Amino acid sequence: MNVNQSQKDSLLMVYVISDSIGETGELIAKASVKQFDTTNYLIKRYPYTNSVDQIKPILEEAATQERALVVYTNVDVDTRAYIHKKEEELNLHMIDVMGPPMDQLEDILGYEPMRQPGLIRRLDENYFKKVEAIEFAVQYDDGKDPRGIVKADIVLVGVSRTSKTPLSMYLANKLYKVANVPLVPEVPVPKEVYKKDNRRLFGLVANTQKLYTIREERLRALGLNSSAKYANVDRIEEEVDYSVRIMKDIGCTIIDVSNKAIEETAEIIHDYMIKRF
After folding, report:
1. d(Cα 58, Cα 45) in Å, to the nearest integer?
2. How far is 70 from 79, CA to CA, in rounded Å?
3. 7, 21, 88, 258: which has the fewest C-beta neighbours closer than 10 Å?
4. Any bridge partners for residue 156, and if so which?
């Protein structure tokens, strides 16, 4: 294609119209323009633009430009129909980002798309919430900082080896901010636990034999003597009895995790939270 000097010198205007924030359309526009040897372009993004009154002046402005491209990601049927109509009327160059993929998927799946703006944005928001919840679980694991008890959606309490940490991480993937607090007879329970809404408190208990087996295996893995106090049956019984007294005192929901998988315990807690809040 022969391009004269005036065409090379004129500014390329790219209009990105979206019924959401417009990141997808802008990214595609930038990636496409970068394939050409030019820096003489301007991208204008119009987020949350989904009505005729909003779109009309943008398309009319584009029609006055010597070189213009309109990129749109709108999914609403009426909006798309209007844009298609103006494309012909104003003789505009346009890229319909969402149309062809949705048409093909509709043909494959056999049913119509939801046509709801911003769905991918909602997924992204959930992703960042999940990351935040995981970071929270790490920061406030094992009672490291009692301030986490105040901020947490869920607080887990229990003796060592009742799966507090892995359960905290699993619940974080369900977007809950979880703090966990170990219960040890010689260590005072943080005052924040007693002030916490007990609907958000969950106590994890397990039978003595189960804890003995887990702790013995833990010591063996660490290369330590299995006769240590940590894996002593009498000591474990003392800890369990103490933990149950504390749990009853703070009024938390007690869950026996002796024969439960992490996923099962998490689902129980999730169900409680849905019913309570």
Report:
1. 10
2. 14
3. 88
4. 180, 202
Amino acid at 85: K
Alpha helices in the chain (DSSP H): 5-9, 23-33, 52-64, 77-90, 99-109, 119-139, 147-151, 164-172, 191-195, 208-221, 233-250, 262-276
Q: End-to-end alpha-carbon separation of the chain, Å?
A: 64
Q: Which two tokens stand for residue 161?
A: 């080896």
Mean pLDDT of the region 123-131:
79
CB-facing half-sphere around the CA of 110: CA atoms within 13 A: 0
* Cα–Cα distance for residue pair 212/237, rounded to 1 Å: 10
Question: Parallel, antiparallel, or unpaired: how do β-strands 12-17 and 41-46 relate?
Answer: parallel
Interatomic CA distance for residues 233 and 45, integer angstroms: 67
The whole-angstrom separation of Cα 204 and Cα 178 is 14
Residue 111 structure tokens: 């049913």
- pLDDT classification of 8: cutoffs 50, 70, 90: low
d(CA 216, CA 79): 66
Specify the pairing of strand 94-96 against strand 154-158. unpaired
The answer to whether residue 147 scores a pLDDT higher than 60 is yes
Please report the pLDDT score of residue 2 as a whole number. 52
- The Cα 73–Cα 18 span in angstroms is 5
Q: What is the DSSP letter of 199?
A: G
Q: Nearest 5°: phi and psi at 26? A: -65, -40
Structure tokens at 177: 């901010």
CA 170 to chain centre: 13
Predicted confidence (pLDDT) per residue in 217-262, tens digit: 888 877 776 666 787 899 999 999 999 999 999 999 999 999 999 9
CA dist., res. 140 & res. 156, Å (int) = 11
